[in-house]
Specification:
8 helices, single chain, about 160 residues, about 60% helix, mainly alpha
Length: about 160
């Protein structure tokens, strides 16, 4: 399911997840129809159905797949010192909000993601809105307000 989703994104032109692209859904739908239309009958319908299932994010499998799809870039950004976050001026608030989909797919993955986000903020990789002099930042959950680092992630 994840690979099928990624094939469509590649063909449609992958978009930075914080970017606003009004035509994204239409471009991806056309890409999915084009790519999977090249496959033999039966397989074409199966792959298109899996792509639609991922996009709808209504089944256990698709919500988990969406969580994984969102978690990987978070881990990559965390481990490359927030390169994309910094290049695009992404704040903790934006990242925290955007990654809520992980919570819907897996509470355990969300706990890990939330710790990464808080640690990234404490390291200056994801500034809070208030630090930028813009809108007030969301408050951290009490369980994470004193978190200063994520153990075991230095490798």
């Amino acid at each position: 399911m994840l690979l099928i989703h990624d094939l469509v994104e590649i063909d449609a032109g992958d978009t930075f997840c914080y970017a606003v692209r009004p035509d994204k859904a239409a471009c991806e739908r056309l890409a999915a129809e084009r790519i999977f239309g090249l496959l033999p009958c039966g397989l074409s319908e199966e792959f298109l159905a899996l792509w639609h299932e991922f996009e709808a994010s209504e089944t256990k499998e698709s919500t988990f797949a969406n969580a994984l799809d969102r978690l990987l870039p978070l881990i990559q950004n965390y481990n490359n010192n927030g390169q994309s976050w910094k290049e695009h001026g992404i704040t903790f608030d934006q990242a925290y909000s955007r990654n809520q989909i992980i919570r819907h797919g897996s509470e355990e993955l969300w706990n890990y993601a939330e710790k990464l986000l808080v640690d990234a903020s404490s390291k200056g990789l994801l500034p809070k809105q208030a630090e930028l002099g813009t809108a007030p930042n969301r408050s951290l959950p009490p369980s994470l307000s004193s978190t200063s680092s994520v153990s075991g992630l230095e490798d």
